[in-house]
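Problem 12. The chain below contains 220 residues. Write out its predicted structure in token notation.
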Amino acid sequence: MVYTHLSPAWFFGYDVLLEISFAVVSLIIALFAFKIYKSSAIKQVHLFGLSFLLISISYIIQSILNFMIISKLNENVSKMIKLQSIVHLNTLGFLIHMFFMIIGLSILLYTTFKTENRKLFWLLIVVSLLLLFLSRDAPNIFYLIVSVYLFFISFHFIGNYRRNRQPKTLLIALAFLLLLFGNTHFIFILNHNLFYPIGHILELFAYILILWNFYLVRKK
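Solution.
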């Protein structure tokens, strides 16, 4: 399988910096969640932290491999060697990113069910990975799964806000809506030169909102 890099030429490099930012912010969110779990022993908080730890790992690996692609583009070697190595790095980076991201979001979706049923937990992960890696069009299936999961996660947090009307739950609901809007465009035939950068910027704001929410919870 060969995966094309959707980033427009003018944005390539900036997207790597944003991916590093996603990795750092999601890692901080995970650490915040683990600290809250230590004092509260709430299982859902621990799973929330684990999901963001995996999301952070997915971005760390993707940003490292994308940085290596930039380095390969600058090397003074045979064009054919450069092309082959760039394709391999691009494919490897995207595969690893998809793997960790899908598991992270599956865990996050599982926490919204508020159940102790481990069969449901493993069902989400196994079915998601099977759909992803047995598909002939893995990238589109990946973005479809991500969008569906984010839709239900957003719906869950919107419901939380409608029940308690607290600013903190509103922040979380808005954050996941931004993540949803930032990912949904990938499953449609749109102008990626425009929507790819917008999607990344929306994701950055989303992770900052989630981080801010955990800061407020921790400060309380």
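Discussion. The chain has one domain: 9-219. Students who got a different answer should revisit the alignment rule from Section 12.3.
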